[in-house]
Amino acid sequence: MRRREFVTLLGGAAAVAWPLAARAQQPERMRRIVILHTPAADDPEGQARNTVLLHGLTQLPQRPDRNPLGGRRCRPHSQIRSELVALAPDVIVATGSATVGPLLQATHTAPIVFVSVPDPVGAGFVDSLARPGGNATEYGISAKWLELLKEIAPGVRRVAVIRDPALAVGAGQFGAMQSVAPSFGVELNPVNVRDAGEIERAIAAFARGSNGGLIVTGSALATVNRNLLITLAARHKLPAVYFARNIVADGGLISYGPDTLDQFRRAAGYVDRILKGEKPADLPVQAPTKYELVINLKTAKALGLEVPPALLARADEVIE
What we know:
By secondary structure, this protein is an alpha/beta fold.
């Protein structure tokens, strides 16, 4: 697939497909959308994203059938490539770099709207943003993670940056954090992990030192192993900053990142434009417009941390 065939929305693996009735060009033909997520089919966050996207589609002139989820299917990633050709989707909505990457080999024709890909240019998904002044990456967020960690846990002097080495965005994110680390008086340690075993061993080894904290960067690996990450941070008394709200809702300390539900609402608009005949190559990358700061006070108390009032006042959500 040529890079510029991708439609991108910046911002997780079951496949969900349903037919969509489209009146824009061929009212007699049913349109098919395939949604690829990293979370399991019964994951609340994944369900919320699907619901938001479906709701957005139902608000468009091209409305879904009365029972749009009647043809729902769930498949592991290993089967997705062979099934995509048979499904012949009109549009694919994919979440995360680990999901989008394999689609390069899976289809050469279907337009793809992807969400939660921090650096689509670096990953090779698009040639350019085709939008002057746009933001190709979330490197600025990376520096913000370090700032928040020091704000909620001033005693931290060593920080392990947990990341998936297969993702191209990792080097840029670490570079952004490294550029501000001296001003916060911290030593950064990049920690590459590929599975649950490596996560557990790496965090246990890092925790042998004192004054440590964690920054967990966004990846499918971190999403799937979020409960393990939360458990290890609590076990080793390590303050941790995460990339997504749902991890803090499950017991993590603090998160800062794009509002993914808002991104899925916006993705519905791109799906509509494609079904109306616009070319994916002509649609620009869109950067996230909403970010969420979420704090879990119960976790802070368990870690012996007093959350500064100024930080609480800035939070979009406080979990007690």
